[in-house]
# Entry
Amino acid sequence: MSPVASNPPQPGSTDPSVIRNFCIVAHIDHGKSTLADRMLQNTNVVTPREMQNQFLDSMDIERERGITIKSQAVRMPWQVDGTDYILNMIDTPGHVDFAYEVSRSLAACEGAILLVDAAQGIEAQTLANLYLAMEHELEIIPVLNKIDLPAAEPERYALEISNLIGVDPDDVLKVSGKTGEGVEALLDRVVNTVPAPSGAVDAPARAMIFDSIYDTYRGVITYVRMVDGRLQPRQGIKMMATGSDYELQETGVYSPDAIPGDGLGVGEVGYLITGVKDVSESKVGDTVTSKQNPAPEPIGGYREPQPMVFSGLYPIDGSDYPALRDALEKLQLNDAALSYEPETSVALGFGFRVGFLGLLHLEIVRERLEREYNLDLISTAPNVVYKVTIEDGTVVTVTNPSEFPEGKILQVEEPMAMATIIVPSEFIGAVMELSQSKRGQLKGMDYLSEERVEIRYWIPLAEIVFDYFDLLKSRTKGYASLNWQRDGSQIADLVKVDILLQGDTVDAFSAITHRDHAYSYGVKMTSKLKELIPRQQFEVPIQAAIGSRIIARENIRAIRKDVLSKCYGGDISRKRKLLEKQKEGKKRMKMVGTVEVPQEAFIAALSTDTDSK
Amino acid sequence: MNQTEISSIPQLLPDFVSSAVNDAERTFSLYVHVPFCLTRCGYCDFNTYISPDMGPGASHDSFAATAIKELEYAATLFEKSGTEPKPLHSVFFGGGTPTLLAAEDLTAILSRAEQLFGIRSGAEITTEANPDSLTAQSVQELADGGFNRISMGMQSSVGHVLQVLERTHNPDNIVTAAQWIRAANLEMSLDLIFGTPGESLEDWQASLDTALGLQPDHLSAYGLIVEEGTKLAAQIRRGVYPNTDPDDQADKYLVTEERLSAAGYRWYEISNWAYDPDHRGIHQSQHNLAYWRDQDWWGIGPGAHSHMAGLRWWNAKHPAAYASRVLDNISPAIGHEIPDDDARLLEKIMLGVRLAEGLDTAVFEEYDPETAQRAKTEAELLATQGLIEPSALDRGKIVPTLRGRLLDDAITRRLAGF
# Structure
């Protein structure tokens, strides 16, 4: 008997008892996408011929980075013991920047496959998402992937997993997404262990949005998990958090292409189209209900996206500013967590202060702007949000170092994070040394196995955002994996360090640092700039200052010779062309007061380097 | 090689020639490029070749005939434009090493030029020379044939500096050649280079002293420019030699000015000094001044550049390509440009501010009022900053001060408004 369902239940009329909603929790590179592909093949949702590798990741950047940024859901029929079941696989983002999105995806499921590379063991991010899944009381199915690899050590890592989640090592499934080994058994396990969704069929409709994406042709496509009741096309709906009403134009499921249907019922996972053009109208975590017969309470757990990291984005060519604005507008259609506002910088001209969920989010947005919109950008050093209390008791929220209040400051509050680091035990010393130098407080340490340790630090988010992860990687020979979550705030002795050229502050280089690190930042930036800024017709002092106090200083000596001794005889054009080239070069110069600074110097000075401390 | 490319110079030229000829202020000079050397110096990026024979019309023996043919071709273009060229203001044979050709070849080219264009009385007629390729007899032959000035590439008197430059001449030969030049009653100019990697300040002072001991009428002293594509550039990139240091060159330039002015030499262009103890304006190179004063000249030979009243053109670079076009009666010019008003202004600025006689501020006023106003403000600022002479500015001339000479390109850029 073929396990492939012969006569699968149709969307909108599926008995909740045969629905299994699950997701896959895995680290990047641990083979989630390959396994998902294999499941699509085994359930005949995609024929091998149609198979496009890593079906679930549709954006180029995702495929290249092997990161799933946007989640989607696929409906797969599967037969066990003669009963046709519907498996809804909900893809989750793997990265901590998208922790909230992850939590909403998990909330749409009853079960989670914990997928671990049999050659590498569990990583910090996976662990974080596993804990999240356990908090949502999902049924966990532990699976070791890539057992076909010569370096695989399934026995060893099965033990690690069993220690973590308290199952018998024998219950850890062993599969290979690549060869397909064990995948059918895994599908059976999903049917047998993941609970069927429960919900009130007759109650007012409630659907939880776990993702929404912008489609050029259809507008916003909203992914929902039906909790109670039923939604169908042409009915009025209401978003409970935003309070807006729409008419439902279409409902359906993905299997793997969109299949429109006549509605979605309890426990089902599918999509809604309302004709809305902006994803911020359809927010992840919001509850969709019926307009005529609204539910009294939303599902709960909704939260406004909170940008945690800010950076200034500036076009290298000032005339690209309108193009950057348009591009950000378009990206925002598809990324409700992206926020921005115009800002100007003396050094960099017109740009935007952009808020991100985290560093990866920043990198992705920047890369998409450069790649999809063909923009050349400079980004300023990322910073976090500070709450600064000034003398009269007013609290100022600072998202940009240049907004740091002048004058007497009562206290500065900085956001903190709980960082979880998993490393081979030989690196414990290196991790502790680094974390302490980054003002971290040790909160705990657990051995996952004899060789691997989970270390927890309470550490300023600013340090993580700055260079903590890079340094962690380099000091642990790349073995450390890091996860962090926002976790409260602390009052700290923070100061703003300004960098001055010829007495003028270069706003792009101002930074908020701990007083103990201010000097080293000042020395680093002044000496870096000394190397990068060409000599001028006059001496240029470069200073680092806290308020009016100079903490570091370098000098760019005045240029003494700026003349070509030869005029190239009769080849006047050659000399003139040299000058015309200098004129072109000059267009890329930014004036800071009277000092000419090449654009490249800003870029080089703003680029983070891992060699420095 | 652009064997078949039809040069647009014959079509373009008539208009420019007539405006050049009809402007009484404009002078007309001749440059002849001889593209041969015995060895290639490591720093040199000139259009020169060490092969003595690069094909028909492009060998040591046949080059003079090719050059003469090009002169005749040039004369026909004047004829076709219905204008008569002015008598030559100056003639300069450069290279390469013109003296690798027999003296009679050089004088034959010169006398053909005189037949075709005429030479004004008192015109400066120079050839560059390598001391190793001169003899007492050849110097006398050049003098008899009408040359009145020889410019020798000395570069340095210090052995290890000459080694880095890969100059192969015997330093003693300079002394002997200088005596021959004196004996033939020719003016003598010496070329020096400072700032070569490894050259100390003392080395440079020694070179200056040696040069001054030869009592030249004229001295050129160039700060070494490491040009892309030269052997020296590659050696510096590989770390064989350190790169040139602008501060070191600045120090040496100041020493040069100090020594030379004490010895009675006067600067008249950034890198050029004339022996003129009584400030009479003598011994300055008329030919080079013609370039810097934006005058007209015809360039004969491979890669030579020409200028006629705002039309610039240049010949095929490779001697064989050049010669085959000349021998086929095709214009050897393979490129030209007519700089627009902005470019012309920039040229005038960059040339004028290199000169002791200075840039006439009238060039801005002729351009447009707004530019004139901006340039005036900038010039006043430059004077306040000590980069140009305030007294000259009062006379309507922009003349760099000693410090300004070292920052001359910056003066140019600022006056040009960028």
The longest helix of chain B spans residues 63-80. The interface with chain A takes residues 31, 94, 221-223, 225, 246-247, 249-250, 253, 270-271, 291-292, 297, 299, 304-307, 312, 314, 337, 339, 343, 346-347, 350-351, 354, 385, 405-410, 412-413, 416, 418 of chain B (CB under 8 Å).
